[in-house]
Write a structure and sequence with these properties.
Elements (H helix, E strand, L loop, with lengths): L3 H19 L12 E2 L12 H13 L9 H5 L2 H14 L3 E5 L2 H12 L4 E6 L4 H10 L2 E5 L4 H10 L6 E7 L11 H10 L2 E6 L14 H4 L8 E5 L9 E5 L1 H10 L1 H4 L6 H15 L2 H20 L11 E7 L1 H13 L2 E2 L2 E2 L9 E6 L6 H25 L2
Parallel strand pairs: 1-10, 3-4, 3-5, 5-6, 6-7
Antiparallel strand pairs: 2-8, 7-8, 9-12, 11-12
Helix pairs in contact: 2-12, 4-12, 5-6, 13-15
């Protein structure tokens, strides 16, 4: 028989899940099928034969296929040293340190870099990993309205006479809206008010900037930024992330970032996968241009039909529908039509901002985009007809 304490805990957990169910916010795991609009494999490298061959060769040549321990114990190998040097060059920075996930990179960076004597200015739509890293740091935080530089400057001005250090944190391409931060203006504000700048390039890596090097490189800002986070699990079809920046930052993280210090290293062959993906991505200028052009055309077509795309300027194209029920209904309709699409609901986005997040990749054709648009228009027409019938 379960103890009374265990029964009470289970009952509370069931109550919490029932509440999520009632508000159409309960999540579940399911394999997706159809034309994939959920994937962050922007360059299609996850199925690339060249990358597959490079991984197979690396595994075949590997002396070991396990990390065996943290990098500070037994997990450090020449493969990781070489890769980090190459990635620093890619990012335009002095150094780079690899973390096993992007979440671990942001948590480890922020929780070890800033503290109670610092203040962090964070865009309200920054990724959860950035938010959690700031919370764990114990730093004072100022959340400014999304991309509102006037509000950011007002907050920086108010803090200008205080003794604490100041850090501005922003994504370059925002994961849910697909819009981009004005990096030059952010850097100018940082310089004006003696603040450091941290940029998360997760959704820009491999897709934006010269040969996919990101928007910080495109703006000529990489050497001026305290830290740039580049992830490998999206356009690079691998896993993990690099924190890039000055050499002293890498040494600091080696000694203080708990998510690095206490994580088992990935096996050495995985470094070869990232290196191969990086080489392939740098040679895909035509694919990058085509992807971004198709995204722009698709965005314009959606807007011409009256859909709200949240000001996107990237390969991420949201369709804001507002309510949870409408978003889930649209997603289910599109799934029946052969599209792998899921509704994004609170708490991932704010209340009233539920949406379809359409993630475009090089694997999706113009014909499939056109078919999706027509299917979405049909869904809206059906919704309108049902609403008229209910009020008749």
């Amino acid at each position: 028989m379960p103890s009374d304490a265990l029964s009470a805990w289970k009952a509370r957990l069931h109550q919490g899940l029932s509440a999520l169910e009632a508000s159409s916010q309960r999540r579940s795991l399911a394999e997706i099928h159809g034309v994939n609009f959920c994937s962050n494999d922007y360059l299609g490298l996850a199925g690339d034969p060249g990358l597959r061959a490079a991984v197979a060769q690396a595994v075949s040549n590997a002396e070991k296929v396990g990390g065996t321990g943290s990098r500070l114990l037994s997990g450090q190998t020449e493969e990781w040293r070489v890769l980090e040097d190459e990635f620093a060059e890619f990012a335009g920075t002095e150094s780079a340190l690899f973390f096993t996930t992007g979440y671990a990179a942001n948590i480890g960076l922020l929780s070890s870099l800033v503290g109670r004597d610092d203040v962090v200015f964070s865009d309200e739509r920054n990724h959860a990993s950035l938010i959690d890293g700031i919370r764990l740091s114990g730093a004072r935080k100022v959340i400014y309205p999304h991309l509102n530089l006037n509000a950011l400057e007002d907050a920086l001005r108010q803090a200008s006479g205080a003794p604490w250090r100041k850090v501005i944190v922003s994504e370059s391409v925002f994961s849910m809206d697909g819009d981009t931060a004005p990096l030059v203006e952010l850097a100018n504000l940082a310089e004006k008010y003696h603040a450091a700048l941290i940029l998360d390039e997760a959704h820009a890596t491999g897709v934006h900037g010269p040969t996919g090097h990101g928007l910080a490189v495109a703006a000529g800002l990489a050497p001026k930024v305290l830290a740039i986070i580049h992830t490998c699990g999206k356009a690079l079809a691998s896993a993990g992330a690099f924190v890039c920046g000055p050499g002293v930052l890498k040494e600091h993280l080696l000694n203080h970032a708990r998510t690095f210090i206490f994580s088992t290293a990935l096996p050495p062959y995985f470094a070869a996968q990232i290196r191969a993906a990086l080489g392939l991505a740098e040679g895909m200028d035509a694919e990058r241009a085509s992807l971004l052009q198709r995204a722009s055309t698709f965005r314009a077509a959606l807007e011409s039909e009256g859909f709200d795309t949240a000001g996107t300027a990237s390969q991420i194209v949201p369709v804001l529908l507002g309510h949870n029920d409408a978003t889930l209904d649209a997603a289910e309709h599109l799934q029946r039509e052969g599209f792998a699409i899921r509704g994004i609901r609170p708490p991932t986005v704010s209340e009233g901002a539920s949406r379809l997040r359409l993630s475009l990749t090089t694997r999706i054709s113009e014909e499939e985009l056109s078919r999706l648009l027509h299917s979405l228009v049909r869904w809206r027409s059906r919704q309108s007809s049902l609403a008229v019938a209910r009020h008749a």
